[in-house]
Amino acid sequence: MQNQHFIDSEVRMSILAKNLHKTYKGTTPVKVLSGVTLEVHKNETLAIMGKSGEGKSTLLHILGTLEDFCEGTLEVCGHTIPSSYTSKIRNQHIGFIFQSYHLLDDYSALDNVLMPARIQRKGVDEKKALELLDLVGLGARAHFLTKLLSGGEKQRVAIARALCNNPDLILADEPSGNLDRTNSKMICDLLLATVKQMGKTLIVVTHDKELAASCDRTLFLNDGKLCTS
Amino acid sequence: MLFELSIIRKYLIPRRKQLSVSLIGLMSIFVIALVVWLVLVFLSVTEGIERGWLDKLTSLNAPLRINPTKAYFNSYYYQIDSISWTSNYQEKSIGEKLVALETNPYQPSSDMEIPYNWPQPEKKDLVKEVFAILSKNGDLTCQDYELSGAMMRLQIVKDNTASYLTQASYLASYTENNPYFNGLILPPSIKDINHLFNLASQKISGSCLDEPPSTSLHENYHDRLHTLLSHMTITGLKPTYSHWRIPPELIEDNSSFKADHNQTHILVHDHGTGILKKQKGKLYFQNAETSAPVLLQDPITFKAKLKPAKDLRFLVEAKVQNKLLKGELPFKGLEIASAKIEKPLIFNQEDTGVMLAKSFQDAGVKMGDVGYLAYSAATASSVQEQRVPIYVKGFYDPGIMSVGNKCILVPHEITRTINQSSNSFNFDPTMANGIMVWFKDLKSADKVKADLIKSFEEAGIDKYWKVTTYKEYDFAKDLLQQFQSDKYLFTIVGIIILIVACSNIISLLIIMVNDKKKEIGILQAMGTTKKSIAFIFSSCGLVMGVLGSIIGIIAALLTLHNLDSLVHLLSFIEGHEAFNAAFWGESLPNMLSNHALLFILITTPLISVLAALVPAIKACRINTSSILRSE
């Protein structure tokens, strides 16, 4: 194990990206990112906005080590990417919240929340998972199969799951995209409140101006580059 | 690992929601189980048959033989008997050398001069030295043997008439020291026992010029019968013909039977319209006294016990129409229906009984038949036929020896007599006489051989003896090679059908990977490594392979346990014997082969995992990002 990778108490930056490029190869190559440079401090909340198809989700997936980039350098929570430990970095340092929730349908809410802990193999703290479900207001439905929950409830389970392994960085891809206005507001408030309360870094890709306004900083992705307006 | 196991469990438990995947999964397990069952049963049965054949081969011919080499026959030790008066100027066989009082019988004062080109006398007794070495190893049993040849002629007695069977035969001396010999001897059949009893109760008719010496045959049969009876107990008798005449003394007083009166006799049967009754020792039919013979329509079997007297009378008991028939009967007109063989026949070296291969039974030969062995003996002026009288003492199972059916086991004296005077069969002298060595573990044959050769070398007698194991016997070599190549062939065929069966796993897991793409993506987003994903899908294949194997093994065990019933069922369906007893044996072997089990336990999981590797690699290569974005 690389010591430098996992001694992150002194790391101040959650994300340190320089000049990231991403092009989808194919018969007609599509250039999505062309020199994205981004610094996100610990405990900071950042909203990334932009038109559909600009590459916001791609950027978020690159930052979450789910996708490779073509050029540039990237450090996530002090770890240089690409690394041979990306799965472990994802498991221990990053929590994901997706627009389509992406829960395991045949498992209960509790099992879904516990899944990152089970993958980590460090012993499963069921009590903590129940506390997280309480925190998102789903303590009473902990043992419900997630396929039986409503969209809002599913997203709340996803928030609890993202926090399970106590990660430093939460990456949310349009967390309220599939919800109605009431639920959307509730989820955004919950997400921000929880992140602030637990002292996590949040990068959220959103079209929701209200949510973006609630974040510490908002950046816009335009023509493959990030800009402040 | 717990995480992966929980996912494997989730994926493998059949669900209604994933009906097609579940059905394909169950089918895959079923097909693997079927193939495992087939391979196990087939390999177990063939290995059992091979083992049986090998046992018979090595029981009869010993797993190891020591034969004299040309150096032995050229040695002073062997040749000196031919010029020694004390040896009657005849070379001695190994058996005779073993019991000879002197190693060097030569008397310079009385015997002729030793030819100048003869070798120097050996320092050791070559035969006794070999037996001394063999006796040092407590696990070995040994005996000298001698082969010969003669024309056998047997008189086959059937229904008081005699026919003759003539066969040129190999003769092999009995090896009574052979610990496995009794296993080769077939128990006397009811037909044999009846035949011996018939021979004992009457003199043979149908004499002709060529009849073998048969003086005092009658008495001999009584003696043989006595020997036979000391080895078995007769428990049941039945009449030899239908409509058996009931002796009136068997009918108890005051017992009555349903019967019909015909003109000449009274027929006792269940649907009789009249009543036959015995009162005060007299028979009455419909209350009128009768002296007509009483015949029984239905077959009857008596419980029987031999009376301790020489004239073959039995105490019998049976029920007819629920009434007891009880009394004493002579053997005439009856035959044995059942007998308990208590111990195998013991061989008496002094008599002339021979053991024939079981195929002679098909020719109508039965125990007790008499005959002779004819061989030609050369005298100074002519070649004469000489005969040794013999009788059939029993039958043995020669296994699959090519000459087995022509080989007769005879007392040592017969082979010796024929070999000394005969010139009708020219055997290779290095093979016709030798020492057979038996030991328990056939696999140790090569080691026993190496140890013996080493001991012979140390004793300085190695050039006089050639040690061969059963693998090198001329008559068995081809067969053993055939066994070996059959085994390889079966193994290859087994592997191929296992591969075909396990290939179902590939299709199933590929469907499963496509079905679980989203789940794989989610798990990877949460930090599951590619290794874990590969492990999950490989293990699914492994679990299916192992499950199929377990079911197949249990099914094979059940099948082997009930093999005889299944064979009977098959024979019943086919309308004839499903398996040829001459090739497969009386009953198919039903022991699960350890080799086959090991083969299945190694290959099935291995092939299953290999089959699962393709979908496992496919699962690893899933693009997490595109999967998570596609919805």
Features:
heterodimer, A: 229 residues, alpha/beta, Rossmann fold, six-stranded mixed sheet, four-stranded antiparallel sheet, B: 631 residues, alpha+beta, nine-stranded mixed sheet, seven-stranded mixed sheet, 43% helix, flat
Give your account of this protein's structure.
The complex is a heterodimer of chains A (229) and B (631). Chain A is built from 8 helices and 10 strands. With 229 residues, chain A is an alpha/beta fold. Chain A has a single domain, classed as P-loop containing nucleotide triphosphate hydrolases (Rossmann fold, 3-Layer(aba) Sandwich). In chain A, the strands form 2 sheets. Chain A has a 6-stranded mixed sheet with strand order 6-7-8-3-9-10, with helices on both faces. A 4-stranded antiparallel sheet of chain A has the order 2-1-4-5. In chain A, α4 (109-120) runs parallel beside α6. Chain B is an alpha+beta fold and 631 residues long. The model of chain B is unreliable at 204-209 and 212-218 (pLDDT under 50). Chain B has 4 domains: 2-57 and 478-629, no CATH class; 76-121, no CATH class; 141-231 and 343-431, no CATH class; 233-341, no CATH class. Helices cover 43% and strands 23% of the residues of chain B. In chain B, the strands form 3 sheets. In chain B, strands 1, 2, 3, 16, 17, 18, 19, 20 and 21 form a 9-stranded mixed sheet that branches. In chain B, α16 runs antiparallel to α19. The interface between A and B is medium-sized, with 26 and 23 residues.
